[in-house]
């Protein structure tokens, strides 16, 4: 499919270029910008993605300066095509849609045709979304017919045929196959011969006419080899192998699968090389459009500044008057305060005593919450781990409702523990918002995917609508933001059955770097009675709607409200019984491309190690030993387990380990003391704490003892191996330096 997509893009790019009249204007002229877009398309055809993106970026800047929607759409089309070839599907769709937004403002049907066709490709073959992809293909066909572009009709129908056959919908794709076979000779030179031959092979394989199918596959393979472009050749080998398997020629089928993997790997290695060249270009693409807004903002600020100067003079006079009045008031009250000073001192002493008691009570509460969470997380680690082990070792139990219920119950209990800890931290003002760069659309879609299981249980659908005007990268505390969205969506799913939950994000205001984004979480569930709407944000409140028992701590919405207060925001709701509920709030995130680049450069690269690392596990709990060892061995690492700090000190003297996983709460010698002694003995092996304690409680002591990182149990295995790889990569980097 890679070759056909490149051809389609280049075909439409050249076709569009021929339809646009050239206007002679001062540099950069429209002709010069069109030449830049043609150069970007040429670099794309040659797989020079870094040069293509750089050139398209310049063209986009000039197009925005000219406020030319056609040129803007054409530049976005090139940018999106690059990301599609680099398999960054979300970015490709984002920029294709931006291009289509500007294209729809023009009368040029050719650029609309190109963008709709490319979106059809991306949805069908990138996101495997057949319905959405076909809707874009059909729009593309309408435009092709409108402008009498017969070659465009032919190519789009090739793509539609492939999409149907890819989904084994041969009956639906047959009319399109008949069309392209009928007109193949007319468009033999347009680069589709390999694809058409392969599609015929797929169809006759489906019809069990093996001889005809094999003939077409061999033609396709020969065409791919002679053309020198191997982009689509792996798909031919793969489909040919399926035919051979049906014929019972397993040896030859295996040989073709080997060829498929070989060519596929060769192409993927080339993509990685090209992707490396474009790192650093990705962030700056939308910067130029923002400059236009910045210029307008600067003009407004100058006018506001003049007005402020006048206001300042008036305020100075008022302030001076107020100060004089205050001085008089201070003098008048001085004697009164002196008389009351002794009484205030006594009252202050009483308040200090009360404060100390309150602080002691708060400390005891925190200690209690911490202890309970530790005692609960340790057995939960065992329950979740052993459940996963049973599922891994006994595949026949994968659909067991009992195991599913056990795993769900453990995770649900862990969620309750985390809710209690979260509200405790907020009340003690222990949460400080972080500044991290993140992609809003990616973050919301990640949350959506993580909650699909709950949505499926209630037969609900989650829809996401992101305003295209929102910048690609924002700066803010994405973790706390995610907690807000997760709690609200989870709440909506819980009280909705056979319905929809919509997540909308709209850019409502820009002030300097602050972009104010309004979020709406809307469901069509059972709704909230008007008399209950004032209570739902209180702690431990559960509104009994329709006398149905909904599980939960009653902390979710209370956490949402308090986290939004940290962002300087509030939340409102509209709801009607049996019609649904909408929660609305606004958060201001910064958009600063320069700072975004700095933050991204500080993010450690996650490497997937191909080496077999030797891991030492230090834990006194037998169940934890069993589970942790199983997780490590499943990743093909070596693993040694000891049950005390003394045993760890002894074994590292005899054997070399790449990383040590250290429990904290052990008898005789805890994890902190063990790590200190390891460092005193000259052992520099990275140490990761595996503990059920809350991370913020032990971070300072862990770093002081010489530990390198902390992972809280229960944990996802991917987090463990990502942390190990980052530490080992960092150690190797230091060693090289």
UniProtKB/TrEMBL annotation:
<keyword id="KW-1133">Transmembrane helix</keyword>
<dbReference type="InterPro" id="IPR011990">
    <property type="entry name" value="TPR-like_helical_dom_sf"/>
</dbReference>
<dbReference type="InterPro" id="IPR005467">
    <property type="entry name" value="His_kinase_dom"/>
</dbReference>
<dbReference type="InterPro" id="IPR036097">
    <property type="entry name" value="HisK_dim/P_sf"/>
</dbReference>
<keyword id="KW-0472">Membrane</keyword>
<protein>
    <recommendedName>
        <fullName>histidine kinase</fullName>
        <ecNumber>2.7.13.3</ecNumber>
    </recommendedName>
</protein>
<feature type="modified residue" description="4-aspartylphosphate">
    <location>
        <position position="663"/>
    </location>
</feature>
<dbReference type="Pfam" id="PF00512">
    <property type="entry name" value="HisKA"/>
</dbReference>
<dbReference type="Pfam" id="PF02518">
    <property type="entry name" value="HATPase_c"/>
</dbReference>
<dbReference type="InterPro" id="IPR036890">
    <property type="entry name" value="HATPase_C_sf"/>
</dbReference>
<dbReference type="InterPro" id="IPR001789">
    <property type="entry name" value="Sig_transdc_resp-reg_receiver"/>
</dbReference>
<keyword id="KW-0732">Signal</keyword>
<dbReference type="InterPro" id="IPR004358">
    <property type="entry name" value="Sig_transdc_His_kin-like_C"/>
</dbReference>
<feature type="domain" description="Histidine kinase">
    <location>
        <begin position="371"/>
        <end position="591"/>
    </location>
</feature>
<feature type="domain" description="Response regulatory">
    <location>
        <begin position="614"/>
        <end position="728"/>
    </location>
</feature>
<dbReference type="GO" id="GO:0000155">
    <property type="term" value="F:phosphorelay sensor kinase activity"/>
</dbReference>
<feature type="transmembrane region" description="Helical">
    <location>
        <begin position="311"/>
        <end position="331"/>
    </location>
</feature>
<dbReference type="InterPro" id="IPR011006">
    <property type="entry name" value="CheY-like_superfamily"/>
</dbReference>
<feature type="signal peptide">
    <location>
        <begin position="1"/>
        <end position="18"/>
    </location>
</feature>
<dbReference type="InterPro" id="IPR003594">
    <property type="entry name" value="HATPase_dom"/>
</dbReference>
<dbReference type="InterPro" id="IPR003661">
    <property type="entry name" value="HisK_dim/P_dom"/>
</dbReference>
<keyword id="KW-0812">Transmembrane</keyword>
<dbReference type="Pfam" id="PF00072">
    <property type="entry name" value="Response_reg"/>
</dbReference>
<keyword id="KW-0597">Phosphoprotein</keyword>
